[in-house]
């Protein structure tokens, strides 16, 4: 491959158990990351922010995401764009599988 190019296979990446309710697989680049997250129903991702914009794509299940005080319910097939620097948190309404990049 060309220098600086990396190829990953999701099924070969380790599953990182963040809590009893949240697990993830991550690909981290120099300026962006792409993460598969698995959240059990009721899982809460605490309030946090990022220096870059973040996109949350719900592949299965649903999340309530609070961004700067507003709440959006994001369901299967939907993408939520979180602006750079915006404080946000999420709660899984069901067992949920998401892709997050930014």
How would you explain this protein's 3D organization?
By secondary structure, this protein is an all-beta fold. Strand 6 and strand 7 form a beta hairpin. The protein has one domain: Jelly Rolls (Sandwich), CATH 2.60.120. The radius of gyration is 14 Å and the shape is globular. It contains no helices and ten strands. 0% of the residues lie in helices and 54% in strands. The chain has a six-stranded antiparallel beta sheet with strand order 1-2-3-10-5-8, with no helix packed on it. The protein has a four-stranded antiparallel beta sheet with strand order 4-9-6-7, with no helix packed on it.
Quickly describe the structure.
The chain has strands at residues 16-17, 22-28, 33-39, 44-48, 54-60, 62-67, 70-75, 79-82, 88-92, 96-101.
Record keyword descriptors for this entry.
102 residues; mainly beta; Jelly Rolls; 6-stranded antiparallel sheet
Present the secondary structure layout.
Layout: E1 16-17, E2 22-28, E3 33-39, E4 44-48, E5 54-60, E6 62-67, E7 70-75, E8 79-82, E9 88-92, E10 96-101
Antiparallel strand pairs: 1-2, 2-3, 3-10, 4-9, 5-8, 5-10, 6-7, 6-9
Query: How far is the N terminus from the C terminus?
Result: 24 Å
Radius of gyration in whole Å, from Cα? 14 Å
Strand content: over 45%
How would you name the oligomeric state of the polypeptide chains in this document? Answer: single chain
Quickly count the helices: 0
Q: N-to-C SSE series? A: EEEEEEEEEE
Whole-number total of structural domains:
1
Might you state the CATH topology name?
Jelly Rolls
- Name the average pLDDT: 95
- What's the architecture, going by CATH? Sandwich
What is the assigned CATH homologous superfamily? Jelly Rolls
The beta-strand count equals 10
- The global form is globular
State the helicity in percent bands: under 10%
Low-confidence stretches: none
CATH class: Mainly Beta
Q: Provide the structure class.
A: mainly beta
Biggest pleated sheet: 6 strands, antiparallel
Task: State the strand order across the main sheet.
Answer: 1-2-3-10-5-8
């Amino acid at each position: 491959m060309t220098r600086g190019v990396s190829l990953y296979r999701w099924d070969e990446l380790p599953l990182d158990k963040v809590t009893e309710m949240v697990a993830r697989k991550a690909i981290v680049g120099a300026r962006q990351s792409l993460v598969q997250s698995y959240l059990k129903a009721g899982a809460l991702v605490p309030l946090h922010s990022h220096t870059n914009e973040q996109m949350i794509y719900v592949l299965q299940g649903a999340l309530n995401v609070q961004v700067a005080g507003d709440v959006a319910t994001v369901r299967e097939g939907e993408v939520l764009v979180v602006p750079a620097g915006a404080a946000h948190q999420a709660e899984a309404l069901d067992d949920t599988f998401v892709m997050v990049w930014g």
